[in-house]
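User: I'm new to structure prediction. If I give you an amino acid sequence, what do you actually give back? Let's try with this one:
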Amino acid sequence: MLRRRPRLVARLRALLGPDTAAARQSLVALSLNSTTSLLAGAMLGSITATFAKLPGLLVLVPAAIGLRGNIFGTFGNRISTTIHAGTFRMSTRPESVLGQNVLAASSLTLVMSVALAVLAKAVAVALGLSGTTSILTLAVISVIGGVLASVVVLGATLGLSAGAVRYGWDLDNVNAPLVSTLGDVVTLPALWVATFATGLGLITSSLGVAVVAAAVLALVLSLRSRLEELRRIVQESLPVLVVAGTVSAMAGIVLEGRFSSFDRYPALLVLVPAHLSSAGALGGILSGRLSSKLVLGIVPSRATPSREARLDIFLVLLLAVPVYVFNAVGAHVVARVLGEASPGVLEMLAASLTGGLLAMALVVVIAYYGTIASVGAGVDPDTYGIPVVSSTVDFVGAFTLTVAIAALGLAAT
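Assistant: Good question. You get back a string of structure tokens that encode the predicted 3D arrangement of the chain. For your 413 residues, that looks like this:
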């Protein structure tokens, strides 16, 4: 057995070749992503009273978390492509590539935060969730929480961009996991802080009107800007972000509808953010690597993945196994530290691996064909790849995890 292990490691290194370093970079970023997502899971379990007070808020949560990754993940992907192409300059002047990306991310944060409030309300009502919180109240929570979280994530994205230029990091390998990490960690507390602006009668209503007006103004100024890159990013991003937000809101409905199942074993609720975030980060890595290689002509746009694309797919699937094992063990430990019930470490492993690998099978298909479809349609794959993957993963991940929980007999009876 001891002899086989070095041989296996040697074969993997030979197969991955230069991607061995990429695997190490990604695994470090994914480990950080999972660790902090487990903290977000602990936070999720501790604010259940807030969800009970504001029905429909849980529907907004996956979409609000995903929005951070969708906006700033694509931000990093676009910067990564310009770095690979040798056209990037570290300047935040409005007319620079980086400056226009910063303006676009800021505008999209305001606009989509309001849009998510409307989408969460609409999806909740359409799928029969009664007594949901008003749109203006959800808009206040979504915008204030979104802005607070985005300030942190924007700072980190700028730091990663600077690090990529100075130290030669590959943003395709580290951007998606780290942005997803911060999205998980800061969005939930930011939304919770934003709830203190609700329930204040006329003040809350006035705030709601103000944030909606600010979002409309940001949208108009962006679409009429003289900065071509800013206009293009906003125009291309809005449709896919709306679709992504709708799908993520449906993930919230899945969690809301099965919330009683998590009451039996709160450790499973601790697992949820890490489970969703890991699949999104893994899909983001694949999408980011493929989009850069498609733009540079390294990977051909065709129905059957080329050898180069297959290596990227293999790399991501290889990374998924230790990540989901880590998630399961970590959620079990965190729950026990908090004094919450867990079905046991083996059952947690079974639920995490079953739900995770089911989700990854779909993520690979979505990441590959979604990326080449965007190229075929003549749109920027960096703008479309991550939102399509992450939003679908939110829904697929929530669904596959609840299916795994039910199949293993861990659901509430």
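You can read the tokens as a compact description of the fold. Here is one thing that stands out. Residues 15-407 form one domain.
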